[in-house]
Amino acid sequence: MQRPPFVDPATGRQYDTSNANLEGWLTKQSMWLKDWRRRYFILKGSKLFFARGEFSAPHGMIDLSTCMTVKSAELKAGKKNAIEVSTKEQTFYMFADTEKEKDEWIGAIGKSIVQSSGTFTKDDGKEDDDASDDGSEAPEGYR
Questions:
Q1: Residues 6+ apart with CB under 8 A from 130
Q2: For residue 83, what are the β-bridge partners?
Q3: Whether pTM exceeds 0.85
């Protein structure tokens, strides 16, 4: 079964979400009501999509090329295995079911942030020397 594409409401552009880098369930804090909702997340390239179900059309997207940081956020979010993804305009909070999943998401999102920044060269596959070695947090300043 194939998931429908994400359609950006602002531009009408369609984004294919098949062949994702990473996908799975996280619980995300809603922007307006601040309640927690379980969503299916799809990381593909520099975009992080979220949907109500595994095969539902995504209804939201975080452009990681505008992201400043991804890090653990248990204290800020008040939830175990919490993750913070921050852009200049917004901060998103979500949490994973396990610490292992949280670390996997932070590493994958951090890698996407670095790859979409100018510090990553596809020739050698290496990041700038200032990049974090543990993959747990994308360094500040990579925009």
A1: 119, 139, 141
A2: 72, 94
A3: no
Residue 115 CB neighbour total at 10 angstroms: 19
Cβ atoms of 74 and 81 closer than 8 Å: yes
Specify the amino acid at residue 130.
Answer: D
Q: Counting beta carbons within 10 angstroms of the beta carbon of residue 129, is it exposed (0 to 12), middle (13 to 18) or buried (19 or more)?
A: exposed
SS3 46: coil
99, 108 contact by CB (below 8 A): no
d(CA 5, CA 140) in angstroms, rounded, equals 31
The Cα 39–Cα 27 span in angstroms is: 6
- How high is the pLDDT of residue 120? 57
State pLDDT tens for residues 87-141: 989 999 999 999 999 999 999 999 999 998 866 555 544 444 444 333 334 444 4
How far, rounded to the nearest angstrom, does the alpha carbon of residue 59 sit from its chain's CA centroid? 14
Within 13 A of 101's CA, how many CA atoms are on the CB side? 14
* 129 Cβ contact list (under 8 Å, min separation 6): none
Instruction: Name the percent of the chain lying above pLDDT 70.
Output: 82
